[in-house]
Amino acid sequence: MEQVKLKSRSEIPEEHKWHLEDIFPSNQAWEDEFARVEKSLEQASQFQGKLGDSADRLLDCLNLMDEIGSDLEEIYTYARMRRDEDNREAIYQGMTDRAGALSVKLGSAFAFVVPELLSLPAGKITEFRKANSKLETYDQALEDILRKRDHVLSPAEEKILAEVGEMAEAPSTIFGMANNADLKFPTIKDEQGQDVELTKGNYTQFMESADRSVRKDAFEALYHTYRKQINTWAATTNANVKADVFFAKTRRYSSSIESSLDDDRISVTVYDALIETVRQFLPEMYRYMNLRKKALGLEKLHMYDIYVPIVPEVKMEIPYPKALDMVREGLKPLGEDYLKVLNEGFSSHWVDVYENQGKTSGAYSWGTYRSHPYVLLNHQDTLDSMFTIAHEMGHSLHTYFSNKTQPHLYAGYKIFVAEVASTLNESLVMEHLLNTTEDPKMLAYLLNHYLEQFRGTIFRQTMFAEFEKKTHALVEQGVALTADLLSDEYLKLNQEYYGSEVISDPEIAYEWSRIPHFYSSFYVYKYATGFSAAIALAHKILEEGEPAVKRYLTFLSSGSSDYPIELLRKAGVDMETPLPVKEALEVFKGLLDRLEQILDGSKS
Q1: For residues 457 and 525, is the Cβ–Cβ distance under 8 A?
Q2: pLDDT tens-digit readout, 50-63
């Protein structure tokens, strides 16, 4: 049989590629802008030591910093997204490195601003605000700076930290190149006995295969490949955590987790409460795993059995055009304004659809303030991939509405709220499918899929969050993160979160080595909190209609004009209490009850 090989970039039809030409028409245009922006950084020095001279001088400096920041956003985003098309392309590797270095230069050029502002006499900035009303634009940004007074260093020290930033990115860069460009997986046999090259893109599809031997082969092939470089992954992980600890200590935080959460003005108690609340509901996870084992007719449930649909005879082949239609239909409760922008994204080359050789794995939404948003996919004609479209377009429309409403300074939203828009989209699409599906087997399939979203987003991401908390605490205690230590700690957590109903296969101990988000430390907990907030908001939209939609669209248009907790509170959920997480897990419990009834032959 002929082996199925991954297509090259040139073999992907143009209609399925994004148009980065909307940012820069050519690489030469990028080079011209790079040179101009690099030169413009020289203007920063004219303000150093003079921010306290007048309101006008302060305003001019802040405007320049914001303008150059917006310019640099275009430069870096274009280079990185070109690289993501095919990580093997040396020209875009180089452009991305240069853009990253220019970002460091920007940080270094304006490193004096924050410490100089903090050195001004008390009340000086308030006086300037009264003298020049245009400074009101910077009220939220200035407040955010002033509240961090205890963690800002001298101008010279801030300059050093800015320049160290490029070196601190090395672990993530090395992991990304090794994981996306260099790592090669073996060939396995699919359900038809055909040789297929295993990729990160088709791995999930294999894990949903009804053929258990295919699942097992894919599982073992993937983790045995990562295990071959396990000491390298441990070294990059250790270096990344050490960098986090270094910056936290240098900025006089008591821990790296406190330092990270302070960017969003989130208390560590919110993080700890998430872990505590999810652990309270672990018996429901064990019940779900036991149901899965019975439904699949297995004596023992392995880690490679936890993704396959409980109703294997139900197949959902969802080609890309059909997936778009399903997303449109599910998001109708958000109203015509939302749907109009959604359709614009689908028809205007925002999306890069299919996997190709060297392409960055997974999916994301990105873009710049001046361009429209972009979405990277690796579409596989599955239900998961359809939900990925809904998810990433949620991010993109959040970006779109914020960009249209907010100045550049506040258009970018904090990560704490970033997953709300994406997960709410998934929830609305799923609720639509659950309400319109009459076939009990299909309904069971969808309930199983929804339960998997809870498992993957609340339980799994909270497990990741607990792993991150532990690894950072160990390094803060002076412990080196070796491959054995990381694998042992991860395996222990996996056993605690999945319980005795699941055999924690030895290979799962190495899962930590392939998680890109561990290089954006203390990020993953926001998936769980965001998912919980999204479930609550989705239910309000379906129950209240227009009033809830109006509040939600205001939230999408708010960017970072207020702190994340406040933005969500205005939208209708209070994340400073454990209630949203508990409510989401109660929904999980109800879905599980409903699936048990169907599988037992009862009517729901």
Answers
A1: no
A2: 999 999 999 999 99
Give residue-wise pLDDT tens across range 567-587.
Answer: 999 998 988 889 889 989 998
* Type of residue at 531: F
Cβ–Cβ under 8 Å, residues 583 and 449? no
Active-site residue list: 392
Q: What is the mean pLDDT of each run of 10 residues along the chain (604 residues)?
A: 75 95 97 97 95 95 97 97 95 96 94 90 88 92 85 85 87 92 91 92 90 95 96 96 96 95 90 95 96 93 93 83 97 97 96 94 94 96 92 97 96 90 94 91 89 93 97 97 97 96 95 94 92 92 94 96 92 89 92 91 52
- In the chain the domains, ranked by start, together with CATH numbers, are 9-168 (1.20.140.70)
Give the integer Cα–Cα distance in Å for 26 and 36: 16
Cα separation, 174 vs 428, in Å, equals 38
Q: 493 by DSSP, 3-state: which?
A: helix
Please state, as a whole number, how many other Cβ atoms lie within 10 Å of the Cβ of residue 415. 16
Phi/psi region, residue 440 (left: phi>0; alpha: psi -120 to 50; beta: rest), is: alpha
Q: Does the predicted model carry a pTM greater than 0.85? A: no
- Beta partners for residue 301, in sequence order: 502
Q: Are 384 and 357 in contact (CB under 8 A)?
A: no
Q: How far apart are CA 246 and CA 337, in angstroms?
A: 46
- Dihedral over Cα of 489, 494, 500, 505: its sign: negative
Written as one string, the DSSP assignment of 416-470 is: HHHHHHHHHHHHHHHHHHHHH---HHHHHHHHHHHHHHHIIIIIHHHHHHHHHHH
Q: Which residue, among 559, 278, 572, 427, has the nearest Cα to 270 in the 3D structure?
A: 278
Q: Nearest Cα to 560, choosing from 351, 375, 402?
A: 402
**Sole residue written with tokens 């939209």:** 541
